[in-house]
Amino acid sequence: MTKDQILQNPPRLTRFCWVDNAGISRGKAVWKAGLEGALRGGVGLTVGQQGLPMMVDTVVSKTGLSAVGEARIMADLETFTALPFAPGSAMVLGDMVTVAGEPWAHCPRTFLKSQLLEAQKLGFEVFSSFENEFFLFNLDDTPLDSSNYATLDAFESARLVIDEILDALEGAGLTPEMYYPEAGTGQQEISIAPSMGIKAADQQVIFKTVVKGIAAQHKLRASFAPKPILESTGSGCHLHVSLWQDGKNAFFDSSDPIKLSKLAYHAIAGVLEHLPALCALTVPSVNSYKRLQPGWWAGAFACYGLDNREASVRVASTHLLPSADEHGKSTNFELKTCDASANPYIALGGLIAAMLDGIRRKLEPGEPLQTAPGAFSDSERQSRGIVRLPGNLEQAVANLECDEVLLTALGGLAQSFMAVRKAEAAYFKEHPTEEIPRHSYVY
């Protein structure tokens, strides 16, 4: 949508939105009379906003950010979206810039752009999507229903709200591919068609906004927390990715046993090498590590395999597709070690940095694993090079502090991001485990 088209009939309120270092979607709404100026000059943002942890609105001092100083959110009109659950309102995403108009080091969206540019320098476009699981709760915090995985009863109990969510997602420009009730009571899964470049991360922000908004209209609360019910299954946000070159999927090779190219193997090896540190970006909340346990299909070990849902990297099977051309279009791998407490720009940007490092260094991932890694003894895993991923956020951030590739990619964002996550880890060390799901309502 162009600026002129928007201003011909401006919404009453337009939310200029961003996602902070704690993975929380936030926004400031501009009244219609001021929209033209805001689209031209941006919306002001106190720099300290990027220093807020998820549990309190107090700036973490070690971020280097404070109440002094300002950035501006510059709208990307490609993301302008009318909000069906809020008539007269729209949202728009954008980049954070300095008051001088320069890219701001603490902007997650700018970080992802930098990694997409690094991929372009090697001749690749990034094709990706976020596959969300989420819970629907009644307002008294009880799950919407007590059904099980993909039961037809569960389809019916959630049908009215899910139908409206799917219609709203399509109206917002997203393409739903599949829906089914997941294993947890009240848990749902909706997958969205992949997109090139930054659009996949933008769509993830829009997806969560639409789902939460429609759920609220039905007097329900949608939770994307990794583990909103500690004794139940967790919610992942699986990140699917492939690299394309000259209009073709560079991950596909019809002669390979699992249809992967050498490039794809190098990319997977890069992810596995950096995954102990990448966890700080893709499973970045304290609540994440309640989910990241063996036996829960969450990707608790650094390994890969064809349709191996206990591996952190699952190569998606395409063997039932009728033609080699369709194989090539759909070949991808899925990072299961990812959840929706992640800032999608930071998660995808970090994943790209890890893949590109594997490609540049021509790393090899070894043989794909055909067994759940938890079935091996510790010594067997060690001999196969299978690493147990961090057991808590503190350990993941410590790993990130030692990963030069990811730190270099993050640049100035590294300081504020790690300080926020360290503050969250320290807070929950001093508070009961039962508080974690309650605080995770923000996701």
Shape, principal axes of CA atoms: globular
Task: Give the percentage of residues in beta strands.
Answer: 15-25%
The number of domains: 2
Give the full name of the CATH homologous superfamily of the largest domain: Glutamine synthetase/guanido kinase, catalytic domain
**Helix proportion:** 25-40%
CATH class membership of the largest domain: Alpha Beta
CATH fold group of the largest domain:
Creatine Kinase, Chain A, domain 2
Secondary structure tally, helices: 14
User: If you compute it from the alpha carbons, what radius of gyration comes out, rounded to the nearest whole angstrom?
Assistant: 21 Å
Overall mean pLDDT score?
94
| Biggest β-sheet strands, sense, barrel | 11 strands, mixed
Number of strands: 17
What is the CATH architecture assignment of the largest domain?
A: 2-Layer Sandwich
Global structural class: alpha+beta
Cα distance, first to last residue?
29 Å
Uncertain segments: none
Plain-language structure description:
Helix 6 (about 260-280) crosses helix 11 and helix 11 (about 395-400) runs antiparallel to helix 13 (about 415-430). By secondary structure, the protein is of the alpha+beta class. The chain folds into two domains: about 5-105, Ubiquitin-like (UB roll), CATH 3.10.20; about 115-440, Creatine Kinase, Chain A, domain 2. Strands 7, 8, 9, 10, 11, 12, 13, 14, 15, 16 and 17 form an eleven-stranded mixed β-sheet that branches. Strands 1, 2, 3, 4, 5 and 6 form a six-stranded mixed β-sheet that branches. The longest helix has 21 residues, at about 260-280. The chain is globular. The chain has helices spanning about 5-10, 35-40, 110-120, 150-170, 200-215, 260-280, 290, 325-330, 345-360, 380-385, 395-400, 405-410, 415-430, 435-440, and strands at about 15-20, 25-30, 45, 70-75, 80, 90-100, 125-140, 175-180, 185-190, 195, 220-225, 235-245, 250, 300-305, 310-315, 335, 385-390. The chain is built from 14 helices and 17 strands. The mean pLDDT is about 95.
